[in-house]
Amino acid sequence: MQQYFIIDFDSTFTQVEALDELARISLKNHPDREAIYKKIEDLTNASMEGRLSFTESLQQRVKLLCANRDHLKQLITHLKKKVSVSFSRNTAFFKDHQEEVLIVSGGFKEFIIPVVTEYHIKRENIYANTFEFDEEGNIVGYDKTNPLSQEGGKVKLLREMNLQGDIYGIGDGYSDFQLKESGLIKKFFAFTENIERKSVAEKADHITPSFDEFLYINKLPRAISYPKNRIKCLVVGDIDDEALALVKKEGYNIRHRDSIEDKYLQEAGVLFCDEDNQPTPEQVQQAGKLKVIGCFGRVGSRKLAEAACANGIIIFDDPKDNPRNSDFIPRRVTAFMNEGRTHTSCNFPDLQPPRNNHAHRLIHIHRNVPGILAKINDVFARHNINIVGEFLVTNAQIGYVITDVDAGYDPQVLNELKAIEQTIKFRLLY
């Protein structure tokens, strides 16, 4: 059956509410700008949470803007830098599903079209309002005959379109939930990467903290194999706020504890700790899901570094109180999780493979015994899989292999790679 994906724009495709941002541009020299900003934001939230009709909210916000075409140009430049992170990394999905993806928004085509068409979304699949201008290019109103300018506009539009197939709605606001309430769509996904509106999220079929999560749940192609919001990140000790901001931006499920407790470490995929709160060798041996440790300080025990390595867990550390480590450690951890890079690790062999956007990347960590690479390549050969690039580095304990392969293989291949004798850890990176 045909599938359609109805995607909201403000606070979903982009990280921000465009009319709020337009006000900050157009009113920047206005003496009462802060009071007007606040009023516009309050009107936006009241509408998105279902406390005020969309029609009334839109009318009041447009009147307060005092904007023109030059302001819109500045807004477009700004919005292109504010596309939601999980949307921007899944450009390939939009390119491959151009017929099925529709942007449906109570925003305005004048700023939506220049942003989303860069992601292969068809102009004819963009449904939004349009401004009205005077002869000097000032915004004086909008087309009130457009159903999207009215209360329940998305519902009215979809009824007119009469799409045949399974329709999935993705958005952050009450108008998006109304599509589910109307019975016109199969499922509504509350998108919370940028903002979570509890009154909307509690009514959703599923809360999706990222677009990766939506693609994962629906078994659709995606830029990363496993959504970061599903990876638990344990934070223990005195970790700089700047470092935590970088980690949060990546989208991990962050959990703070005062000390390293076994039950929390065993659930974590990532551990950030300071020099005074490091796990024991015995703890890392039992941490089956743990992939990487970022230590803000030096790892004090050679046994810890060796135990982690033997269990396929990479460690990045840096001298305590080094001014660079609030940035250095999170970026090293991110480079490993996203690309498989091990450069500057204190316990893994060094590897810095270039990213290949046209292949799938597989990571295989195994005990350093002869013949493992041959067994890995035998799996690919038996399944007629083309290897685009392959990288192997070793130390006394482990072999670390990254293989980039063409897409389109049987998932059974992954099970066979995991089952190779002497395998410590295996994962599909992207």
Automatic annotation (TrEMBL):
Domain ACT: start-end pairs: 361-430
Catalytic activity: O-phospho-L-serine + H2O = L-serine + phosphate; O-phospho-D-serine + H2O = D-serine + phosphate
A UniProt-annotated Pfam family: HAD
Class of this enzyme: hydrolase
Protein known as: phosphoserine phosphatase
Enzyme Commission identifier(s): 3.1.3.3
GO MF, one example: magnesium ion binding
Pathway: Amino-acid biosynthesis; L-serine biosynthesis; L-serine from 3-phospho-D-glycerate: step 3/3
Cofactor(s) needed: Mg(2+)
Keywords: Amino-acid biosynthesis, Hydrolase, Magnesium, Metal-binding, Serine biosynthesis
One Gene Ontology biological process: L-serine biosynthetic process
